[in-house]
C-alpha cells in the first residue's frame, strides 16, 4: 500500500491527479494528461478553499464548472465524472480538519454550483456561437433583401445555401417560401410547409410574450424579435429552435414580408436536461440526490404562513455488515431495492424521497397537516422494510432507524433541520434501532454540545485548558492526611469548568484519553514531589500518596508501564507514593494479558486500587488473582450511614467486605463521606482511609498541604 500524501499540497495534487485521470479520456484537448492535470490543479485549489472557507461561497463552484467548459471538457460524461470525483475524494483529500457532515454538505453544494456553472458556461458558449450565426443570418437577411431588389438568381443561391432554416411569409402569416434547411428541420415538403399559416404553429411551452411580439412586428411597430420556441413535427416530436423574426420593408419603407431564421437547438436542450438530471439524481438508485433534496427542502421551509414540513431521516441498521460479508455489489443491489420500496411510500402530493449517500435516505412531506402525515409516512417506510430482500439467492432482513423532524415553515434553515434529523436518527439507532424517534430540541442541544466538546478536545490539551484538583485521603484511625486523589477538570472557554463525567467518556471514545491520562499522571506525580520538597521531605508530612485514575483504554495501551516508569524517574518520586485506581468494571473478566501491566507496576511498588468496588459483577474470589492492594468501596454502600442509626443490612455488607479485604491484606478506602457520624461508623467497622466533603472538597494543591501541615502541628 502506498503512503498517504504528507501535506495539504500533496493531498491537493493527489486529488487533481485522480480528477485528471477520470476526465482526460472524455476531453477534447491536444494537451498531454500531465499538462491537463496542471490545468486542473488551480481548479482543485479553488474547490479546496471553498470547502474550508468560513462562509460558504457558491461562486467558486460555478467558476470551476465554467472553467471546465473553457478547458474543452464539454462532453456530458466529463461533468458526470467530475461530480463523482468531487463527491468521493474532495472531503477525503482537502477536508482533513472539520466537521465531516458539514464538509459533505458543502461538497454537495459545490457540486450543484459546479453543475450550474458548467451549464451556464455551456449556454453562454452556445449563445456566442448563436450570435455568430445570427450575424451571419443578418448578413444573409441583408443579402436576401438586396437579392429581392436585384436578381432572383442571387437570392436563390443565398436562400438555398444557408445552413440555418429560412422562411418568408406575408403579413397575414401565409408561408410563401422555405429553404431546404427548414424543410429538413420539420421533415415536411416545401408544398406542405407553404400551405401552413404562421399562427397555427402554437405550442403549450410558448413564452407569454411570443405572440404579442409577433403582432407588434406584422403591424410594423418593431423591426425584429428573438426568442426560444418549440414546434410540433408531424410525427408528434418537438422541435426546439432559436427563432429570429425580422420585418422586411418595401422600397418606400412600408412593411411587406416577415423573414424567419431558425436554428435547431433540440439536441442542445436535451443535453442540458440530461446534465441537470445527472447533477440532481443519484446514479445508483435514480432517486433525487442531496443537491436536489436541499433545493426542495429549502423551498418547503420558505413556504408561506400556515405551511408545515415533515422529514424522515433513514439509516439502514447493519448495512456495513452486508457490504463486508457479501461485497459492495450486493450492497448496491440492496440499496436499489430499498430505494424502490421507499419511492412507493411517498406518492402523495408534496412527498418525495431522496438518497443522501451510502445507506442514508430522506423522505419529505409538506402541507398544512404534516404532524399527522409524517408519522404515517414513517410507518409506511418501516412496513416497507419488513419483507426480506433477495440478493444473490440470500434473503436479507433489512431494518432501519428513522429520525423525524416536523414543524412550521420559516423557522429553521435546511442545514439545521437535517442536523436535527440526523441527531434524532442516531438516538433511535442507539436505542436499539428498527424504530423511529421524534426530534427533541433538548436532546439536540445535548448532542450538539457533546459534538462541540469532542471536536475541541484535541486542541484543549495543547492550549492548557485542563487543570487538576486534589481531594484529601484521610486515615480514619488518627485523622491524618495520607494523600490525595487527582481529579482532572476542563476549563472550557464557553462552558466554564467541566467535571470529568462531561468529557472523560468523549476522550475515551476519541482515543485522547491516552495523552490526557499521561498528562494527568505526570502533573500529579510532579505535584507529589513538590509537596515533599516544600515541606522538608516525607518525614515532615508523613507518607503522602497520590491517587490517579486509569481508564480502560489506558489499561490496554502498550506504553502504560514505560510511561509510568519514565515519569517516576524524571520526578524522583518513589513508586510507593503512587496509587493507580482502576474501576471494578474494567477488570471484569480480565485475562492475564490485561493484568500483566498492572502486575508489573505492582511489583515495582505502585499501589493498585480497585475503584467503585461493589458496583460490578465480579466474583469476590477473583480478588485473589488481581494485583490490587486497595479496595475503594463505592459510596452507595455507605450513604445510609450519614444518619443514625444506620441501616443494619448496609452495616453487615460493609463489615463483610472489610473483613474479606483485610483477610487478603487489602486496605479499604471509602468514598463519599459527608458527615461525622458516617466517618465514625466507618472507623468502627475497620475501614482504613476515607475521602469526601466531610474532610474537604476537591481543590487546589495548596489546600492539601495546608491540611497535612495542620495535622503535623496538631
TrEMBL record:
Positions of the PAC domain: 225-277
Domain GGDEF: from-to ranges: 307-441
Domain spans labelled EAL: 450-712
Superkingdom per UniProt: Bacteria
Matching Gene3D superfamilies: 3.30.70.270, EAL domain, PAS domain
Family annotation (SUPFAM superfamilies): EAL domain-like, Nucleotide cyclase, PYP-like sensor domain (PAS domain)
Domain PAS stretches: 151-221
A Pfam family recorded for this sequence: PAS_4
NCBIfam families assigned to the protein according to its UniProt record, in alphabetical order: GGDEF, sensory_box
Protein name: Cyclic Di-GMP phosphodiesterase RmdA
Gene: rmdA
Amino acid at each position: 500500500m502506498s503512503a498517504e500524501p504528507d501535506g495539504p499540497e500533496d493531498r491537493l495534487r493527489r486529488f487533481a491527479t485522480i480528477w485528471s485521470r477520470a476526465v482526460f479520456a472524455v476531453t477534447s484537448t491536444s494537451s498531454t494528461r500531465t499538462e491537463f492535470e496542471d490545468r486542473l490543479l488551480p481548479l482543485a485549489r479553488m474547490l479546496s478553499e471553498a470547502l474550508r472557507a468560513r462562509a460558504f461561497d457558491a461562486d467558486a463552484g460555478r467558476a470551476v464548472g465554467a472553467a471546465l467548459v473553457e478547458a474543452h471538457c464539454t462532453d456530458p460524461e466529463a461533468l458526470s465524472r467530475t461530480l463523482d470525483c468531487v463527491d468521493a475524494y474532495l472531503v477525503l483529500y482537502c477536508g482533513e480538519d472539520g466537521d465531516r457532515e458539514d464538509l459533505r454538505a458543502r461538497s454537495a453544494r459545490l457540486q450543484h454550483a459546479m453543475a450550474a456553472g458548467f451549464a451556464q458556461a455551456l449556454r453562454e458558449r452556445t449563445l456566442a456561437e448563436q450570435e455568430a450565426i445570427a450575424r451571419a443570418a443578418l448578413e444573409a437577411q441583408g443579402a436576401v433583401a438586396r437579392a429581392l431588389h436585384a436578381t432572383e438568381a442571387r437570392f436563390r443561391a443565398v436562400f438555398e445555401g444557408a445552413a440555418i432554416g429560412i422562411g418568408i411569409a406575408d403579413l397575414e402569416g401565409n408561408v410563401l417560401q422555405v429553404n431546404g434547411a427548414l424543410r429538413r428541420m420539420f421533415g415536411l415538403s416545401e408544398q406542405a410547409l407553404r400551405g401552413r399559416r404562421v399562427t397555427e404553429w402554437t405550442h403549450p411551452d410558448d413564452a407569454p410574450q411570443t405572440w404579442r411580439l409577433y403582432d407588434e412586428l406584422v403591424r410594423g411597430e418593431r423591426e425584429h424579435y428573438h426568442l426560444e420556441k418549440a414546434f410540433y413535427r408531424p410525427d408528434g416530436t418537438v422541435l426546439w429552435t432559436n427563432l429570429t423574426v425580422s420585418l422586411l420593408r418595401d422600397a418606400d419603407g412600408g412593411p411587406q414580408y416577415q423573414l424567419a431564421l431558425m436554428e435547431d437547438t433540440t439536441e442542445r436542450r436535451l443535453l442540458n436536461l440530461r446534465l441537470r438530471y445527472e447533477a440532481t439524481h443519484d446514479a445508483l438508485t435514480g432517486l433525487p440526490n442531496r443537491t436536489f433534496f436541499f433545493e426542495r427542502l429549502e423551498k418547503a421551509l420558505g413556504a408561506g404562513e400556515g405551511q408545515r414540513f415533515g422529514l424522515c431521516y433513514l439509516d439502514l441498521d447493519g448495512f456495513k455488515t452486508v457490504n463486508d460479508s457479501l461485497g459492495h455489489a450486493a450492497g448496491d443491489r440492496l440499496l436499489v431495492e430499498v430505494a424502490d420500496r421507499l419511492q412507493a411510500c411517498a406518492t402523495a402530493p408534496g412527498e418525495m424521497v431522496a438518497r443522501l449517500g451510502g445507506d442514508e435516505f430522506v423522505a419529505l412531506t409538506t402541507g398544512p397537516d404534516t404532524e399527522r402525515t409524517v408519522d404515517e409516512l414513517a410507518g409506511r417506510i418501516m412496513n416497507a422494510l419488513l419483507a426480506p430482500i433477495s440478493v444473490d439467492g440470500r434473503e436479507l432482513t433489512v431494518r432501519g432507524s428513522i429520525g423525524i423532524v416536523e414543524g412550521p415553515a420559516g423557522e429553521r434553515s435546511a442545514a439545521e433541520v437535517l442536523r436535527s434529523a440526523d441527531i434524532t436518527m442516531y438516538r433511535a439507532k442507539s436505542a436499539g434501532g428498527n424504530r423511529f424517534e421524534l426530534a427533541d430540541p433538548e436532546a439536540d442541544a445535548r448532542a450538539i454540545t457533546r459534538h462541540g466538546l469532542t471536536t475541541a478536545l484535541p486542541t484543549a490539551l495543547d492550549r492548557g485548558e485542563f487543570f487538576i484538583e486534589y481531594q484529601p485521603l484521610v486515615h480514619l484511625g488518627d485523622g491524618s492526611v495520607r494523600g490525595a486523589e487527582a481529579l482532572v477538570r476542563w476549563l472550557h472557554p464557553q462552558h466554564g469548568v467541566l467535571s470529568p463525567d462531561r468529557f472523560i467518556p468523549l476522550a475515551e471514545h476519541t482515543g485522547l484519553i491516552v495523552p490526557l491520562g499521561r498528562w494527568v499522571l505526570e502533573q500529579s506525580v510532579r505535584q507529589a514531589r513538590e509537596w515533599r520538597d516544600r515541606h522538608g521531605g516525607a518525614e515532615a508530612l508523613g507518607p503522602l500518596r497520590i491517587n490517579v485514575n486509569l481508564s480502560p483504554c489506558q489499561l490496554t495501551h502498550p506504553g502504560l508501564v514505560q510511561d509510568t516508569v519514565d515519569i517516576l524517574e524524571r520526578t524522583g518520586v518513589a513508586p510507593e507514593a503512587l496509587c493507580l485506581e482502576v474501576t471494578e468494571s474494567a477488570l471484569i473478566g480480565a485475562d492475564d494479558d490485561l493484568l500483566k501491566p498492572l502486575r508489573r507496576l505492582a511489583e515495582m511498588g505502585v499501589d493498585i486500587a480497585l475503584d467503585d468496588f461493589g458496583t460490578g459483577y465480579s466474583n469476590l474470589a477473583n480478588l485473589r488473582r488481581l494485583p490490587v492492594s486497595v479496595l475503594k468501596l463505592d459510596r452507595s454502600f455507605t450513604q445510609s450511614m450519614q444518619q443514625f442509626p444506620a441501616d443494619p443490612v448496609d452495616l453487615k455488607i460493609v463489615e463483610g467486605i472489610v473483613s474479606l479485604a483485610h483477610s487478603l491484606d487489602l486496605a479499604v478506602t471509602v468514598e463519599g463521606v459527608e458527615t461525622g457520624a458516617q466517618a465514625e461508623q466507618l472507623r468502627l467497622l475497620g475501614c482504613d482511609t476515607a475521602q469526601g466533603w466531610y474532610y474537604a472538597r476537591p481543590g487546589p494543591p495548596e489546600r492539601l498541604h495546608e491540611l497535612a501541615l495542620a495535622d503535623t502541628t496538631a
